[in-house]
């Protein structure tokens, strides 16, 4: 079965260069400093950020930077087959490490010596691009927590369909049916790449094609997330009088 | 079991929509360029890169002379000298207590910066160090003032005044620190019959008003004292009002809390926990504040 039909449509009815619908919300929890909920098509992720707070394990404290602690977990009901363990398996541990790498590229950790920032991510529904959705949700939660960032970190996937058609933001079906996938996390304004991962080999002629597609996707996701942040800010800021302290 | 249980679907959820006031401000988000040229001084929430000044947090710009800073609407407590805070003792160590004040590092209360019973200018001896647990133990709540800020950013507190000290009976509410408005006094004896301490760190303490609260201070803790039902109801109502204002992002200060308290009289205390009534109180309070401001 082809991933792109003769009419130029993908299995879920999108064009090859079309993103899935992104819906997101900031400040969904009261307890953590920052939180966010993000849907990318059918992939749904919750993120919560605690801190910066004192490092609980003294020996891990750094004198010149904050410790970033990530935890990636998938709800047992998130996949087609019920998951046995929500976290702690090899895949989740790998995800956690990659998430930490992406977040550390953006957070200005040098401002918070002896501190720790905890980022908790929970995948509620997995439909491809879990890593990207997690990176995007974590970015929103960090912005909500008021933690200084160099800029947003945005994740996006891309793949190849029908041999040479680049597909953006691949779903689970396309991930499993198609060839290799490329996952990137970038700082979209400066164009720096924080994480880049390929599930299989790409032909060298195709790599730049797919990579450019993914980078373009990141820029478009950035616009969407930035709009959400501004809307959220103007909503809560207008009520509280923009946090101005003068009475 | 004729209890009134209210279960609402996600689609019927009350979205906080208190009408905004004030004009629109320009908003910045992380990575956005504030000024193309960098002849400004960079303050909090900004960083220089390639000769331009960029924002590092999402919020509004504050300019004081040539100093540019971006203030996030929500963040952890950033201590300033002179702030009144409410904190919880985490640890008792040699000559100091570690206090949780919602700051990014644990705050420190030195044995030498508390008023020990019996004499102001008494030397702190070894016995005093051994007695520290008698004054404050882990889990105790205190009100204090920020004395200084250490180089690493942690706060040093002091309780050298009879207004500060150990808190005994009451309710603690944790809200976002940005919602607490700075004012002349953060200790209020409200006319509705309760006292409230609005800690700048977002910890709000509500307690029954005691007749001679000034003379006690320090480490006196009267847990045997009975608080009447009427007093407890007032405290519970105040707590719910503060929560209603905080969830709807309305700044907390004595006037706004009093307005909310007056508006809440039409509800039962328990009804105040419904999202609908919380929003109603927030809107009415906002309206009342605006009316008095316009006068």
How does this structure look, described?
Chain A: Belongs to the RNase PH family. Chain A: Component of the RNA exosome complex. Chain A: Its main location: cytoplasm. The complex is a heterodimer of chains A (247) and B (295). Chain A is α+β, with helices and mostly antiparallel strands and 247 residues long. Helices cover 30% and strands 28% of the residues of chain A. Chain A contains four helices and nine strands. Chain A has helices at residues 90-106, 130-144, 172-177, 204-239, and strands at residues 22-26, 34-40, 43-54, 67-74, 115-125, 154-161, 165-168, 181-187, 192-198. In chain A, the strands form two sheets. Chain A has a five-stranded mixed β-sheet with strand order 1-2-3-5-4. Chain A has a four-stranded antiparallel β-sheet with strand order 7-6-8-9, sandwiched between helices. In chain A, strand 4 (67-74), helix 1 and strand 5 (115-125) form a beta-alpha-beta unit. In chain A, helix 1 (90-106) packs across helix 2. The longest helix of chain A has 36 residues, at 204-239. Chain A starts with 21 loop residues before the first strand and ends in an 8-residue tail after the last helix. The model of chain A has no long low-confidence stretch (mean pLDDT 91). Chain B has 295 residues and is an alpha+beta fold. Helices cover 21% and strands 29% of the residues of chain B. Chain B contains six helices and 17 strands. A five-stranded mixed β-barrel of chain B has the order 8-9-10-12-11. A four-stranded mixed β-sheet of chain B has the order 1-6-7-3, with no helix packed on it. Chain B starts with 26 loop residues before the first strand and ends with a helix. The mean pLDDT of chain B is 86.
């Amino acid at each position: 079965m082809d991933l792109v039909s003769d009419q130029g449509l993908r299995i879920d009815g999108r064009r090859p260069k079309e993103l899935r619908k992104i819906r997101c919300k900031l400040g969904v929890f009261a307890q953590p400093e920052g939180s966010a909920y993000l849907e990318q098509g059918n992939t749904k992720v919750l993120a919560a950020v605690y801190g910066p707070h004192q490092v609980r394990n003294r020996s891990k404290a750094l004198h010149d930077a904050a410790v970033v602690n990530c935890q990636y977990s998938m709800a047992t009901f998130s996949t087609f087959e019920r998951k046995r363990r929500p976290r702690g398996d090899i895949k989740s541990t790998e995800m956690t490490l990659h998430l930490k790498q992406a977040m550390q590229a953006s957070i200005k950790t040098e401002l918070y010596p002896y501190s720790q920032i905890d980022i908790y991510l929970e995948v509620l529904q997995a439909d491809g691009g879990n890593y990207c959705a997690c990176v995007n949700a974590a970015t929103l939660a960090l912005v909500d927590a008021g933690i200084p960032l160099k800029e947003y970190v945005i994740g996006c996937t891309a793949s190849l369909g029908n041999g040479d058609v680049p597909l953006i933001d691949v779903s689970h079906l396309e991930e499993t049916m198609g060839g290799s996938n490329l996952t990137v996390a970038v700082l979209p304004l400066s164009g720096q790449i924080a994480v880049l991962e390929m599930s299989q080999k790409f032909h060298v002629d195709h790599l730049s094609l797919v990579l450019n597609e993914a980078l373009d996707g990141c820029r478009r996701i950035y616009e969407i997330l930035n709009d959400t942040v501004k809307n959220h800010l103007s909503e809560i800021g207008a009520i509280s009088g923009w946090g101005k302290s003068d009475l | 079991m004729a209890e009134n249980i209210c279960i609402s679907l996600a689609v019927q959820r009350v979205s906080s929509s208190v009408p905004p006031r004030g004009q629109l401000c320009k908003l910045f988000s992380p990575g956005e360029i504030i000024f193309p040229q960098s002849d400004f001084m960079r303050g909090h929430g900004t960083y220089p890169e390639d000769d331009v000044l960029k924002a590092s947090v999402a919020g509004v710009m504050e300019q004081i002379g040539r100093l540019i800073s971006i203030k996030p609407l929500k963040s952890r407590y950033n201590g300033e000298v002179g702030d009144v805070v409410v904190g919880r003792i985490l640890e008792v160590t040699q000559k100091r207590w570690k206090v949780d004040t919602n700051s990014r590092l644990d705050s420190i209360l030195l044995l030498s910066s508390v008023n020990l019973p019996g004499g102001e200018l008494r030397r702190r001896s070894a016995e005093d160090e051994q007695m520290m647990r008698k004054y404050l133990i882990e889990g105790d709540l205190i009100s204090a003032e920020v004395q200084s800020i250490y180089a690493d950013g942690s706060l040093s507190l002091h309780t050298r005044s009879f207004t500060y000290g150990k808190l005994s009976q009451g309710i603690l509410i944790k809200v976002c620190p940005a919602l607490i408005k700075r004012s002349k006094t953060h200790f209020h004896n409200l006319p509705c019959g309760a006292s409230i301490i609005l800690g700048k760190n977002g910890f709000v303490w509500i307690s029954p008003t005691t007749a001679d609260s000034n003379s006690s201070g320090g480490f006196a803790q009267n847990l045997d004292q009975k608080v009447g039902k009427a007093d407890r109801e007032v405290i519970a109502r105040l707590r719910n009002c503060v929560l209603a204002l905080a969830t709807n992002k309305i700044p907390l200060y004595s006037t706004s809390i009093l307005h909310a308290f007056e508006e809440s009289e039409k509800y039962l205390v328990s009804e105040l926990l419904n999202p609908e009534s919380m929003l109603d109180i927030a809107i009415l309070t906002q309206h009342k504040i605006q009316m008095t401001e316009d006068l």
